[in-house]
Design goal:
heterodimer; A: about 400 residues; mainly alpha; four-stranded mixed beta sheet; B: about 190 residues; alpha+beta; four-stranded antiparallel beta sheet; 4 strands; about 45% helix; about 15% strand; elongated
Chain lengths: ~400, ~190
């Protein structure tokens, strides 16, 4: 799912940023990075309307392909390279690097080379290989590590070159004034009000070394879950404060803070070729039987098994909170109930159906509210059978008693 | 050029942070599971990034360039700001903000226009070229604004500059803006 989010951001970047460079005179462009190696003719074409269209659409199309999982091993690295390339053009007009957009590039680079390329693919339709879950975990840990190293680098420079002179001066207030002079009405901006109020200005000055300390301690957020609970909300608050005081938006960076969330709580695991999952359903329910009829022909790998809640196989799972309304999905040692079960079963179909797992990001209370409403009315809307379903001869091997 | 003492201290702090990670057994165990290709690329990228950071390579190694934000004291240097002001054909003035909407979906011009004007303080042909660039960029904004049917058409677009001495940042009101360049049309 991180791959979907990161490359969706990449596609949005390509779409938006290149429109910004259109019709800008080439004399305003400052080539840097590997663009500075390009000859003048090539740069001239690149900055022309045709060049920007070609680069922009290429970056956008490859990012979309990477996002949806179309030949991911090809398009993910390509999208990353084209994003780096396409960002050089508007940055060359701007005259400086917007550091907040660099984490997207770095995350795209990590995801391109990690095992995430195998998951949620629309083409080729194949089962993910049996990759050790630790390999996924390692790739996921690399991304917040990059974040934390960025903060470490910034704060290390500040301590080394600014030091006490920086923290004891009014430099932060001066920067606030500089950024607020860009606003439509600097006199009444929040930043100017803070600078002109002695108490608030003193608090601002005191916060500078504290924020620097927080940035220096960023690597601890990788090592300690408890510290992460403090670090992430505090840094997000700092960025929100920067937005209101200096009008500097870190929206892309803020969105990427999901990389700090422990993946085990929300990222779906995939069945390997050897594993099967079992769907327990209300055998009398028309809707539930319709759900099974939906799953079976789409389960090409035949990894799902089905059993009625009223049968003997379901007996170990018939706890006090399990009612005939409850759909249960079981694989290995994990048990899913209600909306979790429905999403898990659908996502195990593979291919485009894997993307259903994204709905798991909707908070469970909301999902189950909808589930329970439908479940309470299922007999009335979808009918009730007089007896449990009897599987046909072709279905028998996938049905459990 | 970065100072030797500063570079050494910066390197020491960064390496201390990296050591904190690498000395943690759990982190090492997790990283050991990284695919080899990713491990090599990641290590190489980190090395480029570290060298860029210490040597203060600002753009050449993009996206692995030096990150230093608000890292050095401004030492009471005056604060410079720019704004755009439009004048319609009846003489009324309109504030043209630095937002993407006002700049024809080109918020990068909010940085490009002041940068071009600052380049005018160079000597010789570079100054003339910078002036022409500033005017070209202002024309882009001017034409983008006038092409929007819901906006009051402008006859002139002015680039205005303000300089606030560091000793005056807490005082109100701010000094007056001064028009430094303008383009006309219609």
């Amino acid at each position: 799912m991180l791959r979907i989010g990161v490359f969706a951001l990449c596609a949005a970047e390509a779409w938006v940023l290149l429109g910004q460079a259109a019709n800008v005179p080439t004399s305003a462009f400052h080539a840097f990075g590997f663009l500075s190696l390009f000859p003048d003719d090539a740069l001239g074409w690149l900055l022309s309307s045709n060049g920007i269209q070609v680069v922009g659409w290429s970056a956008f199309a490859t990012a979309v392909a990477a996002c949806i999982g179309f030949l991911p091993r090809v398009f993910m690295p390509l999208a990353t390279l084209l994003l780096i390339f396409s960002q050089l053009i508007p940055r060359g007009v701007q005259g400086f690097i917007n550091h907040a957009q660099v984490p997207i590039i770095l995350c795209a680079l990590v995801l391109s080379l990690g095992p995430s390329a195998n998951a949620l693919t629309v083409w080729p339709r194949r089962q993910p290989p049996d990759v050790d879950p630790r390999v996924y975990q390692a790739t996921l840990v690399l991304m917040p590590t990059l974040f934390c190293l960025g903060y470490l680098f910034i704060s290390a420079h500040r301590v080394s070159y600014g030091g006490w002179e920086l923290f004891s001066s009014d430099s932060l207030s001066q920067w606030l004034v500089r950024w607020n002079l860009r606003s439509s009405d600097p006199e009444s901006s929040l930043g100017m009000m803070v600078v002109r109020n002695p108490t608030l200005a003193a608090m601002l000055k005191a916060s500078f070394p504290l924020i620097t300390l927080l940035e220096l301690s960023a690597p601890l957020a990788i090592l300690s879950r408890r510290y992460r609970w403090f670090f992430v909300p505090t840094m997000l608050s700092v960025h929100v404060g920067i937005y209101f005081l200096m009008h500097i938006s870190f929206s892309q960076l803020a969105l990427l803070y999901v990389v700090f969330i422990d993946s085990q709580y929300w990222s779906p695991r995939y069945l390997s070729a050897k594993q099967t999952g079992t769907v327990f359903f209300d055998g009398f329910c028309g809707l539930c039987n319709g759900f099974i009829d939906f799953l079976m022909p789409r389960d090409h790998a035949r990894r799902l098994r089905y059993a009625p809640l009223q049968g003997t196989t379901a007996a170990p799972f018939a706890t006090a909170d399990v009612t005939p309304e409850t759909v249960i999905y079981v694989e290995d040692d994990r048990e899913y109930h209600r909306s979790d079960a429905a999403l898990a079963a659908l996502s195990r179909l593979g291919g485009a159906w894997s993307f259903v797992s994204v709905l798991a990001l909707v908070p469970r209370p909301i999902r189950d509210l909808v589930y329970n409403f439908i479940a309470r009315n299922r007999y009335q809307w979808f009918g009730k059978h007089d007896s449990c379903r009897l599987p046909s001869p072709s279905e028998r091997e996938r049905f459990l008693p | 050029m970065p100072s030797v003492a500063g570079a050494l201290l910066e390197a020491a702090i960064i390496l201390a942070g990296a050591a904190l990670l690498l000395l943690h057994a759990g982190f090492r165990r997790t990283m050991s599971a990284t695919p080899r290709a990713l491990r090599w690329v990641f290590s190489g990228a980190l090395l480029v990034w570290f060298v860029s950071q210490i040597a203060e390579i600002e753009t050449a190694t993009y996206p692995l360039m030096s990150w230093h934000m608000y890292g050095e004291s401004l030492r009471d240097a005056p604060i410079e700001g720019y704004r755009l002001q439009g004048v319609d054909c009846s003489g009324l003035t309109w504030r043209v903000s630095w937002s993407g909407g006002a700049l024809g979906r080109r918020p990068n011009l909010a940085s490009a226009i002041p940068r071009a004007h600052r380049a005018e303080s160079a000597s010789g042909a570079a100054a003339a070229s910078a002036a022409a660039t500033t005017d070209s960029l202002l024309l882009v904004v001017f034409n983008a604004w006038n092409s929007e049917p819901h906006r009051i058409p402008l006859c002139e677009l002015q680039l205005q500059r303000i300089e606030v001495p560091a000793s005056r940042i807490t005082q109100s009101p701010l000094p007056a803006y001064e028009t430094v360049r303008s383009v006309t049309g219609r």
